[in-house]
């Protein structure tokens, strides 16, 4: 029995448990889109308004579900638009399949309308990058592409001339989805013995847990509790263990806490579990600590800090074997010292959480979200100061999900992620927070949430400027330039798009708007909250940043003959000492 190649393609997607395809139809991809139409009861095609949003949504879908995200676009301009979202997937190491249209086979290499050499264009972003040359092997190559994306945790790109999917194929392809299973290396007993010995000897052990440990939260929690170990979560791993756990020191780095920084600079044994944390100035000083690193990607081992034991393995499997040995250490002096430090930090943060101002304080806005969000909420946090406030004031729980653009750091990731989250988890409340600069980059797709009746809550932190860039310029000793943004009424925009819009100019008004937003069941809500330009100071101001701020102040005085507006002195002093 013959079938169209496009139907075989869709069959492979279904067997890989693909539930959504994000994209825009168009002439060079329409035969594939037509097959999705024929199977719309099995796979939902989510029509977006910009291909970048399709790719960002597919990347977020992979981050949130652990499966493969799929996006689709015409060749030429549509494919080019997808690159940003696909780089987000590449750099955050999540599996995404991009289906790109192409001119028909007879027109390839003829300089036809919208013909672009997509294999060459996508060469750097993709772990699998093929052009389909015959209809008979379309299903097989789609299967291979998904398998490569899942195995290598990256982007697979298929360029498909539009005449091929419409051709009939007689062969019935049996894909590998049902049999696919990732395996991890067995842990060497000698390495395990070394780790145990180092744990028993350490006086100040510290765990840095990354995305690679996300699937093993309970196992990791048992390990740190049994052995009295304080821990730090990388930003994309928030919620692996509850952010408000007694052993938690929050995040580390520019967006992290001062106790996390100080613990890093004190530890004598660093356990890097499922992370390739890139910000080496925030790791222990060279030669300060012994280091154990666990990662399923061997090339990551030792790439950031000199390791004494490098374990090529799954974080959950390795730590489970350590847990089987029982308590390996009982000394809790370092843990208690870190907890005391964290108590002081939390008292300071509680002052910020309780600010009651007009315009609203971003710290209090995030605190209110944290206090009211359901226990199974899905957070999509954009790039900019939103990332900073989310790191500090959202105490993410293991029952919640947290999505950001961690390594690419692309502005505009919040709304596409919320769309993906609402499609994948319609029964859960999806909350996106973006600055006005980030939201404006993708705001047209708020109407996508309207079209599909997705009751997401989109909070726009509106300070009429690129606030994170403001502080980056200052910390580099530069005068601020071209960071101010023209204001617009985002609430009216939301209403014009068919959603619900609220404007809040104080913490009290935001609290009321948020309470109303939780009640919506079939419309997206946008809360345009005007906020004070509060500085998201680093957890610890390091020497280079201090010199930069001093240089900025001097330049400001020289150019404007007045002292620049700076964060409160008590806040700056807390970051120094």
From TrEMBL:
Residues 192-322 form the Thiamine pyrophosphate enzyme central domain. Gene3D superfamilies: 3.40.50.970, TPP-binding domain. Keywords: Oxidoreductase, Pyruvate, Thiamine pyrophosphate. It holds the Pfam family TPP_enzyme_M. PROSITE patterns: TPP_ENZYMES (PS00187). One of its GO terms (molecular function) is magnesium ion binding. Residues 4-117 form the Thiamine pyrophosphate enzyme N-terminal TPP-binding domain. The keyword Oxidoreductase applies. Residues 382-529 form the Thiamine pyrophosphate enzyme TPP-binding domain. InterPro entries: DHS-like_NAD/FAD-binding_dom, POXB-like, THDP-binding, Thiamin_PyroP_enz_cen_dom, Thiamin_PyroP_enz_TPP-bd_dom, TPP-bd_CS, TPP_enzyme_TPP-bd, TPP_POXB-like. Its EC number is 1.2.3.3. Belongs to the TPP enzyme family. This is Pyruvate oxidase. It comes from Bifidobacterium aquikefiricola.
């Amino acid at each position: 029995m013959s079938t169209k190649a496009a139907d075989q393609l869709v069959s492979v997607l279904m067997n890989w448990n693909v539930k959504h395809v994000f994209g825009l139809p168009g002439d060079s991809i329409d035969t594939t889109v037509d097959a999705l139409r024929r199977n719309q009861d099995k796979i939902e095609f989510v029509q977006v308004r910009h291909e970048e949003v399709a790719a960002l949504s597919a990347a977020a879908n992979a981050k949130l579900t652990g499966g493969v995200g799929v996006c689709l676009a015409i060749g030429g301009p549509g494919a080019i638009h997808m690159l940003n979202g696909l780089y987000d997937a590449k750099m955050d190491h999540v599996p995404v399949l991009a289906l790109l249209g192409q001119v028909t086979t007879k027109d390839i290499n003829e300089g036809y309308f919208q013909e672009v050499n997509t294999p060459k264009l996508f060469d750097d972003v993709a772990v699998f990058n093929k052009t389909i040359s015959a209809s008979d092997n379309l299903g097989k190559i789609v299967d291979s592409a998904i398998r490569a994306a899942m195995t290598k945790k990256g982007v697979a790109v298929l360029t498909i001339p539009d005449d091929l999917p419409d051709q009939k194929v007689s062969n019935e392809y049996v894909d590998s989805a049902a049999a696919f299973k990732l395996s991890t290396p067995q842990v060497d007993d000698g390495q395990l013995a070394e780790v145990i010995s180092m744990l028993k000897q350490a006086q100040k052990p510290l765990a840095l847990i990354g995305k690679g440990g996300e699937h093993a939260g309970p196992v990791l929690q048992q390990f740190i509790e049994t052995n009295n170990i304080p821990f730090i979560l990388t930003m994309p791993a928030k919620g692996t263990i509850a952010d408000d756990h007694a052993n938690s020191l929050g995040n580390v780095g520019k967006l992290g806490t001062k106790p996390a920084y100080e613990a890093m600079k004190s530890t004598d044994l660093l356990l890097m579990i499922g992370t390739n944390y890139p910000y080496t100035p925030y790791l222990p000083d060279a030669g300060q600590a012994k280091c154990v690193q666990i990662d399923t990607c061997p090339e990551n081992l030792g790439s950031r800090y000199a390791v004494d034991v490098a374990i090529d393995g799954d974080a959950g499997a390795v730590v489970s074997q350590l847990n089987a040995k029982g308590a390996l250490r009982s000394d809790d002096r370092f843990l208690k010292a870190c907890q005391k430090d964290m108590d002081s930090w939390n008292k300071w943060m509680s002052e910020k959480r309780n600010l009651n101002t007009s315009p609203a304080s971003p710290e209090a806005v995030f605190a209110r979200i944290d206090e009211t969000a359901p226990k199974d909420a899905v957070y999509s946090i954009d790039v900019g100061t939103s990332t900073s406030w989310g790191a500090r004031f959202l105490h993410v729980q293991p029952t919640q999900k947290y999505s950001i653009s961690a390594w690419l750091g692309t502005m505009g990731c919040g709304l596409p992620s919320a769309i993906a989250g609402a499609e994948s988890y319609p029964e859960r409340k999806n909350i996106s927070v973006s600055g006005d600069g980030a939201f404006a980059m993708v705001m047209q797709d708020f109407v996508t949430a309207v079209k599909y009746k997705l009751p997401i809550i989109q909070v726009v932190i509106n300070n009429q400027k690129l606030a994170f860039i403001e502080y980056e310029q200052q910390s580099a000793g530069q005068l601020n330039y071209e960071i101010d943004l023209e204001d617009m009424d985002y609430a009216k925009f939301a209403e014009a798009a068919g959603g619900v819009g609220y404007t809040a100019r104080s913490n009290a008004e935001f609290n009321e708007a948020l309470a109303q937003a939780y009640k919506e069941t079939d419309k997206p809500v946008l809360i345009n909250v005007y906020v004070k330009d509060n500085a998201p100071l680093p957890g610890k101001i390091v020497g280079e940043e201090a010199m930069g701020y001093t240089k900025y102040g001097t330049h400001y005085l020289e150019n404007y003959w007045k002292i620049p507006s700076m964060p409160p002195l008590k806040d700056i002093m807390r970051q120094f000492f």
